[in-house]
Each structure stands twice: as structure tokens, then as C-alpha cells.
Amino acid sequence: MTRLPESHAFWLQASAPFRLALEARAGLEFASLFAAQPLLYSAPKGDGHPVLVLPRLLGCDLSTQPLRYYLSSLGYAASPWELGVNLGPRHGVLRDCLTRLEQLHAQHGRKVSLVGWSLGGLYAREMAKEAPDLVRQVITLGSPFTGDQKPVEFWKTYEAVTGDPMGLPEHHGPLDEAPPVPTTSIYSRSDGIVPWTASVEREGPRTENIEVESSHLGLAVSPLSLYAVADRLAQPEDIWRPFERSGIKGWLYRTPARIS
User: Fold this and answer.
1) What CATH number is associated with residue 188?
2) Least confident of 42-51, 64-73, 98-107, 148-157
3) C-beta separation of 186 from 142 below 8 A
């Protein structure tokens, strides 16, 4: 796993209260969707393939409705996870996610793209490891799958309330191991809940990182996030290329982060 220099780790810890306060802008990010219509609908149209959207911790299908509505309007068969409130990686939750994946694959007769927000992204990555033949690609939004800079107090509160450890079953292997399908991690340096370094994928032939400016709670409604998701989903099946930052995208999206 990636380890940060001590000075960088100290900065992340010291800035945590400020970053958490920035989560209050999530409402403004949702409101900005209306002003961002020209950008959002300049994204390439979808090819109709199924997309399963998984919510964050304590989120439900209502929380992912704006993202699913946008993807549906572009031509994708965007579907909710239909498992109620995401109460964490409890016993059987990954099995139920895989059942949902199998249903969509059988219904559409095509591979399914997985879009997971925060903890939902961890589910998406593990689903793709378990059933790669059913998955077209994985896109995560602020998902903490690498490094040791986790929001410790948040994790401890979850464990105290539920009695479950914050994580997935150990037999699935390291969380920072990328799935065997094209994988994109979308993250924000000003994320107030998940430190951005915990969402940085090791870049390879079929993995990439896209940095946006957003709160954690706004990642599923931020115009920059939504456009990036749509851009990634529009690639032809089995022809995956990294995100292209040419033209106006060069102004809106930073070049891939260098932790060092």
C-alpha cells in the first residue's frame, strides 16, 4: 500500500476539520447541475449498456438518483442497487450485490459497468474481482481502497454502532489490488471524509485516476464528476483508453496527481 511522507500525513490530519467543514458545499454542488447543463449534455451519448450504481455508506438509491437520471438521459440502462440503505460491509452484502449484477447481466445480455460512490466503490471493485466476465468497467467516486490514511474516528464510530469491522472479507485479498477490468478512480483533494490519497489507484494499462474539485457528499452530483463518469462509460466495449484532457477538459481536469 502507498505510504505518505510524514509531513504529508501530518498535513492531512491537521487539515481534516477544515476539509470536513467544506462538506457543507454539497448543496451548492447539486444546485450547480442546472448551470452545468451545456457541459453535461456535451458528453457522448450512451450505447444502452447496463450500469449498476452503488451508494455510499448510509446512502440509498434515492441518493444516487441524480446520477442515474443523468446517465439514463444519455442512453444508458442505469439501475439502482435495490438493497436499501448501505449499512456497511455486513455478512452477505457482497453476495447480494453479485446477485444483482447477475440479474442485470441476464436481463440485458451485456456486460455491466459498475459505478460505486465511496463504500459502494469498494463493493464494485470486489464484485469485478469475483465476476470479471460480467463486468465491463469499474468507476469509483471517493472510494477508500488504498493507503493507511483513513478517517479513523469515522471508522471507529461505525464499528461501535454496528459491531462490524470497516472493511470487506479478508479472503477477497488486498483492497488496493485493482480489478481485472478497466478501472477509474475519481477523487477530490478537498474531500472532507475520505483523504484523497486513499483513493489514488496505481496507474497501469487499464487503471487511471481523475481528480475533480468536490466535497465527498457532492461527488455523485458534481458536474465534473458526472461528466467524467459519462466520458468513461462511452468508450466502446473492449477498447479502453485513459481519460483525454484535451481542449476545455485540460482546463477543468488536472493532470494525474503525483503523491510524491
Assistant:
1) 3.40.50.1820
2) 148-157
3) yes
